[in-house]
Sequence to fold (353 residues):
Amino acid sequence: MLNGKNPFSKYLKRIVIIAVAIYLAFRLRQTVQLLLTSLFLAGAITPMVEQISSLRFKVNRWEIGLNRVWAVVMLYLFLLIVIVLAITPAPQIILELGQFFIKLPSLLEQIQLSKGGIFNLSQDQLSQILQIQPLIEQAQNFGKDIVSQTFVFTLQIVNAIGVGILSMLIAAYMVVHSDSLVRRCLRPFSKEIRQQVEILIPPITRCLGAYVVGRVGTSSLLGFCTYLTLSIFGIPYSGALGLLVAIANLIPYIGGLMALAAIFIAAWGVDFNRGAIALFICFALQQIEAFILQPWLVAPYLNLDAFELLLSIIVGAELFGVVGAIVAPPIAGTSRILFNHFTAIRADEDSDK
Fold:
């Protein structure tokens, strides 16, 4: 009887534990979200922290190195400077972005072709293409909402930064005490599972770190360089367009094209030569980011080919919109690492049989 009851009681305990875990995750979803964000951030900064802590400096006869605590402090000081520089002009840039969308119809009316047209496209056909009323109305309403709620948007940004700082503190603790945390979390599991997790942690953290640095970092740099270019050539709404480029570039393939279209619309009313040169430089900056920086920083660690990357973006956008399209690639890359690892284990087991 006891032997017959043991399997049932074992599965019953597992079901109860899973049910309680799901209930607590739902009730504490904000805390769970904060912990998951911190875990993602910890995995992303771990490769950079290890790189910094591996540096050695020679002072006279002494060799000085940094431990993980000081490596995290140095990295966070740099991020703090970046955050301060980004948040200071935020209200003005948000207001400028709203004004750009409000004036979008008048900006579109400025686009005039020569009498012969271009690419077999007449002025009337171009006007019909540009005057897509539902889209323009949505853009105008979006711009009005931004302008009327600039203060609210700024508060939301400050609140997001506050949550981000809390996530950074938790992530710092995870990185500094990663060895002991991993041991404690894996203690209930078997030796085999612990070994598999320890093997998988380094490639997963490299994947997350490469994505954060390669996508978020280079997109921010691209947005800043776009802002400088447009400001130098006197293109209006340069700050708003720089922000738009930085955000849109996080969406692979189509994000850069949408940002270029916005730059084209804003630059048309300026002197043709200056506008064309500015647009060409912005396009060249996007190509450098896409074909030089991305393959160097992201491609070796994301483990996705072009089709898999595109598919992950489509699925993420379908499920969670723009946010889903942004976070889908690292999730897909992590899934690919897990799939390759366990497929290799299965192949080894089959070859041994």
About this structure: Residues 306-352 form the longest helix (47 residues).
